[in-house]
Design brief:
Layout: H1 19-30, H2 55-64, H3 67-75, H4 83-93, H5 110-124, H6 126-129, H7 135-149, H8 159-171, H9 178-190, E1 192-194, E2 197-198, H10 209-224
Antiparallel strand pairs: 1-2
Length: about 230
C-alpha cells in the first residue's frame, strides 16, 4: 500500500470546527503514541535523530508533550483512559533506581522544558497524576522537580517553565523557594516592549516564540495563579 501523507494524517477529514472536533483530534494524535510507551511508562521513543539533547530527554519529551492537550481535556470533563500509564511513568521516570529514570537536571537542560507540562498537569488535574501515587512516588516526583528548578533556566521564555512547575508544586502541597518564582516573574515582565510585543530574552530579539510561548504561558499563569493580581 502506498503511503499518502494527506489521508494518513490523523487529522485528515476533521474540520476542527467544534469542541467535539477538537476532542477527536486530540485522541487521534495521542493514540498512535501508545505502542511507543516504554514498559515502565516513563518514555515515549520516537525518532530523535535530529535532537541536540540526549536520548532520555528526548524520551521524556515524547512522554510529556501530550499533556498539553490531555490535561485541559480532563480538566474540562473529557474522558481519557490512560492516566494510570502516566502515573506509572511519573513514578518510574523520577526514580533514580529505575531503569527508565529521566536523569537529573544539573544545568540548563531540555528536561526543564518538558517538566513544565508536568507542573501544569499537577496544577490542573492532581486527582489523576498526584493523589493516587504512593508516598515514595510522591517524594521522588517532588524531589525531581525541586532539584530541577534550582538551576538557571535559559534567559528567554524558558523562565515560564519554572513558574509552571511551581504552580504544580503549590497545588500538591510541596514547599519550595518562592523567591525564585518571583524573580522570574519580574524578569518576564521586563521583557515586555509594549503593544503586545515581548523580546525573547535580554536582547532585542522578537521571534516566533512570542505568541507561542510568552503569551501562551502568560495566559496560563494569569488563569491559574493564586494571590497574584
Amino acid at each position: 500500500m502506498t503511503y499518502d501523507p494527506v489521508t494518513d494524517n490523523p487529522l485528515h477529514g476533521n474540520r476542527l470546527q467544534s469542541r467535539d472536533d477538537a476532542v477527536t483530534a486530540l485522541h487521534a494524535l495521542f493514540e498512535p503514541l501508545l505502542p511507543y510507551f516504554s514498559e515502565g511508562g516513563a518514555r515515549v521513543r520516537l525518532d530523535g535523530a535530529a535532537a541536540h539533547f540526549d536520548r532520555a530527554a528526548a524520551d521524556l519529551e515524547g512522554f510529556a508533550r501530550p499533556l498539553w492537550g490531555l490535561t485541559p481535556l480532563a480538566a474540562g470533563g473529557g474522558s481519557f483512559e490512560h492516566w494510570e500509564l502516566y502515573r506509572r511513568g511519573l513514578a518510574n521516570g523520577t526514580d533514580p533506581e529505575h531503569a527508565e529514570y529521566w536523569g537529573a537536571v544539573n544545568a540548563t537542560d531540555q528536561r526543564m522544558v518538558e517538566l513544565a507540562a508536568i507542573g501544569f498537569t499537577m496544577r490542573m488535574v492532581p486527582q489523576h497524576v498526584w493523589a493516587p501515587l504512593d508516598d515514595r512516588a510522591k517524594q521522588n516526583l517532588a524531589a525531581y522537580l525541586l532539584h530541577a528548578r534550582q538551576f538557571d533556566y535559559a534567559d528567554n521564555n524558558w523562565k515560564f517553565f519554572r513558574v509552571l512547575v511551581d504552580l504544580g508544586l503549590e497545588e500538591c502541597g510541596v514547599d519550595f523557594d518562592r523567591s525564585l518564582t518571583e524573580q522570574y516573574l519580574e524578569e518576564l515582565d521586563g521583557f515586555y516592549l509594549g503593544d503586545g510585543w515581548y523580546r525573547d530574552g535580554n536582547i532585542r530579539r522578537i521571534d516566533h516564540y512570542i505568541p507561542f510561548a510568552m503569551h501562551f504561558y502568560g495566559l496560563i499563569y494569569a488563569k491559574l495563579a493564586r494571590g497574584d493580581e
